[in-house]
Structure formats: C-alpha cells, structure tokens
Amino acid sequence: MMEQSTMASVRRFTTQIRSNTKLTSTVFDLRVTVPDASFIPGQFVNLYLNRGDYMLPRPISIADGNDGEFRFLFAVVGKGTELLSQLKAGDSLDMTTTLGNGFAMSGLASMFAVGGGIGVPPVYAAAKRANMAGKDVTAVVGFRSEPILLDELAAEIGAERVHCAIEEKGAIPDLEKRYPAVSFTYGNVVDILRKIVSLDMGRAAMVACGPTPMLKALQSFASPDRFEFQLSLEERMGCGFGCCAGCVAEIRDLGTGKIQRLGVCSKGPVFAGETVVFA
Predict the structure, then answer these.
(1) Residue burial 230-248, b: 16+ Cβ < 10 Å; e: rest
(2) Mean pLDDT, to the nearest integer, of 152-156?
(3) CB–CB of 208/138 below 8 Å?
(4) How many C-beta neighbours within 10 Å does residue 38 have?
(5) Each residue of 102-130: pLDDT tens digit?
(6) What is the pTM of this model?
(7) 56, 206, 249, 253: which one has the fewest Cβ atoms less than 10 Å from its Cβ?
C-alpha cells in the first residue's frame, strides 16, 4: 500500500527561496521555506512561477525536508524550468503542500534504492528514511556523466554502499578522484545490480525512479519472488491534481488482470512495480 496525502489537505501558499544553486550543467538545488517540512519520500509539490505566461505549475519531487525547509533538485529542460533556475535567494513563489503517493516503508530488512538522472532525489529521500529506520540500504544510481547527491548518499548510508553507473566512460577517471570511496561502473544500473545481487541474499525491497527505459529494465530484473518493488513514474504533468488527464499510465489490477488508465499525479507517482504496464 503506497502512502498518500489526501486532496482535502492540499493547499497553495507563498514561500520564500533560501537558495538556488547550480550543481551541474543542467541541475539546480532549490531550497525554500515551508511551515511544515514533513513529507513521504516520493511525494512532490507544485511550484508556480506566478507569471501570466506560465500559469501551469512545475511538479517537482522533494529531495529532503528539515528545519522549516524543503529541498528540490530540478533539471532545466524547458522555458519554465529555465525561469525557475533564475530565481534568487529572497525571491518568492507559490507552491502547494505535498501531493501524490509516496514510497511505503517495507517490512523487509534490506532495501535497494535505485535512481537514474533527475529521478535520484526521491530515491535519495527514501534511502535516507530507510536508513533512519534501521534498514540495510544499498544505493545504485546512474547518470550520463554528471552525478548528483553522491556525497549525501555516502554520508547517510556509507560510501561503500553507493554504486554509480556512468554512461560516458571518459568521465569516470575524474569522478573516481572526486569520489574515491564510491564504486563507479561504465554502464547502467541493471549492470551493477546483476553484479551485487546474489541468489542467497533473501527477499529485499527495491524503490526506483528514473527514465522509463530504466524502470522497464528494472521491472524485468526485480521479480516479485526476490523483490518487493515500488517505482515512481516520471511523466509530464499538467495540473498536478488529476483533473486534466495529462499524465496517465496503464496500471494492471493484479487480482482481476484488468488494465486501467490512471493519473500519475493523483494515483501515483509511486506504484507497485509489477502493476505498471510499459509500452
């Protein structure tokens, strides 16, 4: 059962930016003040630019929350996120309280936190929360060439438990110097999982977020007899509330076998891994 906030509890309010820092060539680290920093890893909020030419919100997952602050990591992928990247400390913007389903805490003792690209922030949040709950957490993350949150993951679960896949082989030597305790692999996250997951490990939880091809490959790898698998879908959202039907996914009812088209924003973004029907 995924953990969820109810629509009745959602409200929009004005917040102030504490910092907005460029981390990589495309990724920014945005921190804003909030009256309540509690959230379920995997949840998101809607951010509003408060401009007449950009009325629709930018839904962004929460990477962390504490001391009256939410932390978001977002990639500049269009004009809206470009404008968001230009905001400075002290600027204000509107946002909602938390939205969507988050990752449910598994009763299993071990967890693999698997993320790709800008899908890593919610996975980092889940890894941090599971580690605080005493779980045995291993992080497996993948990037093209510019990783994020490796220092934070290493600080939370230990660098020896952080495995990073890199698609551009030439980037690895410099990364190994920068993060000497993290294990780097040329390839993808499934390549790493095939090496580190053994048949005698017992059943483990797995949470994942990232590009659709990665999630589809993980679904094939994470058989239900070996993993309790939850994934968070990355879909373009319009309203973020389930009203516009702009972010539907096909989800199979495991009891009846019937496939339904459900809103990722309102019924997700986290789903049981074996229920998602990929094209």
Answers:
(1) bbbbbbebbbbbbeeebbb
(2) 98
(3) no
(4) 9
(5) 999 999 999 999 999 999 999 999 999 99
(6) 0.93
(7) 253
